[in-house]
Amino acid sequence: MSQTELGQASAVTFQQVQKYENGTNRVSVARLAQIASTLGLPLARFFQDLPDAEKQRGRPGVPLADQLLATEQGLRLVKGFLGIESQAVRAKLVALVAALAHGDDPGDDVH
What we know:
Layout: H1 3-10, H2 14-22, H3 29-39, H4 53-56, H5 64-69, H6 72-82, H7 87-101
């Protein structure tokens, strides 16, 4: 598929596709998901060659989003979260995850 065809299918210019390919511009997760769909690939395909996120945890220079999206569980979590329309439910989910990460009892904060 040409850059022009991919750009048209992804609602961006071929110049923007070039910038994505060259690393000049970052690709949002939503745009990357759209590109993956256009190419008939699972989103995880773009992350399969990344080092294991477990090995990267806490390393300077490795964005947390990259660490999250480098795992199948992280991708599933992001897809599920984006499927939640209610902002109140999203906020409660974030509070639950934060509490679990810190070893707190989420039962007091999440209703």
